[in-house]
Design a protein that fits this description.
Layout lengths: L17 E5 L2 E7 L9 E7 L7 E4 L3 E8 L1 E6 L2 E5 L4 E4 L5 E6 L4 E8 L3 H8 L5 H10 L2 E5 L4
């Protein structure tokens, strides 16, 4: 497996970080693929009340989530765990997972993927494309959508 290396030049972001609406959330891309030498992506994500993902599998990257505000129900297949402010969630690639915002407040999370590349999916998904193309896009980025989260 090819290993990536971190960039050699440090960088800092303030208001110039890419901010988009994608996947039903407001996303600020903190670390693009090019900035990290392909090692990781980092996102600051604001999720609205009652937001939920589909149950899905990332085959190309591991996912790490730090809950910074609000409450989420996290799913690993049919297993459910509650994550509150300060909780950390690591999802190795290849495992079904998803999450749902619970409670009365929006949630804010830090979302990291390794290796990098997921930022490109997020950017492409933010474009106005038909649903069938969104399914093909997910497949191209090695994401399998399994269906709705368990109740």
């Amino acid at each position: 497996m090819k290993r990536t290396s971190l960039q050699t030049q440090p960088y800092t972001l303030s208001n110039e970080a890419t901010r988009i609406e994608s996947l039903g959330a407001l996303i600020r891309i903190q670390a693009h693929t090019e900035q990290t030498g392909g090692a990781f992506n980092l996102f600051d994500v604001l999720l609205p009340i009652r937001y939920e993902t589909q149950l899905h599998i990332h085959y190309a990257e591991d996912v790490a989530i730090q809950v910074r505000q609000g409450t989420l129900d996290l799913f690993w297949g049919n297993e459910r765990k509650q994550a509150e402010n300060g909780s950390f969630f690591f999802q190795p690639r290849g495992t079904p997972h998803g999450f749902r915002v619970t409670g009365t407040l929006p949630a804010q999370i830090s979302y990291m993927t390794t290796p990098a590349g997921f930022d490109r999916f997020v950017l492409e998904y933010s474009q106005p494309i038909p649903d069938i193309e969104k399914m093909l896009l997910a497949a191209r980025y090695q994401i399998e959508v399994l269906g709705p989260l368990p109740e």
